[in-house]
Design brief:
Layout lengths: L6 H8 L5 E3 L5 E4 L1 H6 L13 H11 L5 H15 L25
């Protein structure tokens, strides 16, 4: 019997962009290798369940934001984003599309 394949995990690890998923409570869920490479994070720096503040504070302390004002603006935007529903469910279908087309329709 072959081991179970995680298609989403496989996709996440093989896209060229850095991707990080954070839940509604502001906790790290998963990120790909490219995310860690682009941000030059130490090995295994973020683990599932870690507050995203751990990453933000690390980057601030390292000087990546350049100023306290920039850090505060990033924190404000993240706080604002977590207050909004980020998942759309097509009414009556139980289907949760992944994005929108250019015309605004969900796919």
């Amino acid at each position: 019997m072959s081991p179970a394949i995680d298609p989403l995990g496989t996709l996440l690890q093989n896209v060229g962009e850095g991707v990080c998923l954070v839940d509604a409570e502001g906790r790290f869920v998963v990120g790909n290798r490219r995310h860690a490479e682009l941000l030059e994070l130490p090995d295994d720096f973020l683990r599932p369940g870690d507050p995203i503040d751990k990453l933000l504070e690390f980057l601030r302390d390292r000087g990546d934001y350049g100023s306290d004002e920039a850090y505060r603006e990033i924190r404000r935007r993240i706080s604002e984003a977590t207050q909004k529903a980020l998942v759309y469910e097509r009414p009556g279908t139980g289907v949760r599309p992944w994005g929108r087309t250019g015309s605004g329709r969900w796919f």
